[in-house]
Design goal:
Layout lengths: L4 H12 L3 E5 L2 E5 L11 E2 L9 H11 L6 E4 L5 H9 L2 E13 L12 E4 L4 H7 L6 H13 L3 E7 L4 E10 L2 E9 L8 H15 L4 E7 L3 H9 L3 E11 L2
Parallel strand pairs: 9-10
Antiparallel strand pairs: 1-2, 2-3, 4-11, 5-10, 5-11, 6-7, 7-8, 8-9
């Protein structure tokens, strides 16, 4: 069954919650002062029958806000004409990223020793991971701001005896559960924290009668991609961020 692209893309922006969103024909235009690519990139609501001249209209909307234009375009046949038009205008594809989906109705939890804590509002404990020295501080602060602004997110984290060592969020919107911001500090990596967080959030989502899940992960993050595939996620499509190099 074909995926509902519009529902999935709207759910993405419901989760990362940019400061403003405009709808232009079959496009969503998020506006934010952020390093979170999904919160600042124009994205189509369907993967076919788009008209390339919309690109210039989108550029004008971002220019009116004093922002650089960036696009998030799936690598699918139906968007080949859009990609060709972007190349003609000087845009180049960067940062290949996978959109992965999973049926969670039959999810099997994996035994682990970690206690996953959750809250419906952001907590200091949850924020700590994103602001840890292991990660880019500006990007971490932007992710905390974006995810904290969402109205449909559940916040999860894991602590050991010393500090918070891992965090993630799950949004439930548009008929989807989506996973965002999975982070583990370096000293606690490869100890099952990510899987424990996912199990905890999936269990919570099932209690809310959700049956399908998606996430987005950079294609080059092979450790994460392997984990998600092992858990049953499959690639729905790959996308790139398109922007001008100058």
């Amino acid at each position: 069954m074909p995926l509902d692209v519009e529902a999935l893309e709207r759910a993405t922006l419901d989760a990362v919650a940019p400061e403003a969103i405009e709808v232009l024909s079959d496009w969503l235009l998020p506006f934010d002062q952020s390093t979170v690519g999904r919160a600042i990139s124009a994205v189509p609501l369907k993967h076919h029958s788009l008209h390339p001249p919309d690109i210039e209209l989108i550029e004008a909307r971002y220019a009116a806000r004093g922002m650089r234009t960036q696009f998030r375009i799936a690598d699918v046949t139906g968007l080949a004409e859009v990609q060709s038009h972007l190349r003609m205008l000087g845009y180049r594809a960067h940062q290949p990223t996978l959109t992965m989906t999973c049926d969670i109705a039959q999810w099997q939890d994996t035994p682990h020793s970690w206690r996953v804590r959750m809250n419906d509002t952001p907590t200091t404990e949850w924020e700590t991971v994103y602001l840890a020295a292991d990660f880019d501080p500006l990007d971490g602060a932007n992710r905390v701001k974006a995810l904290s602004r969402s109205e449909c997110v559940t916040y999860a984290w894991i602590e050991d005896k010393e500090e918070t060592i891992a965090a993630a969020t799950a949004a439930m919107s548009q008929g989807w559960m989506s996973l965002h911001g999975l982070r583990t500090v370096k000293r606690a990596q490869r100890q099952g924290c990510a899987q424990a967080l996912i199990d905890g959030l999936v269990s919570y989502a099932r209690s809310k009668h959700m049956v399908k899940c998606f996430l987005q992960v950079e294609e080059g993050n092979m450790t994460a991609v392997a984990l998600y595939r092992r858990l049953g996620f499959q690639t729905a499509w790959r996308y790139h961020y398109w922007r001008k190099d100058n």
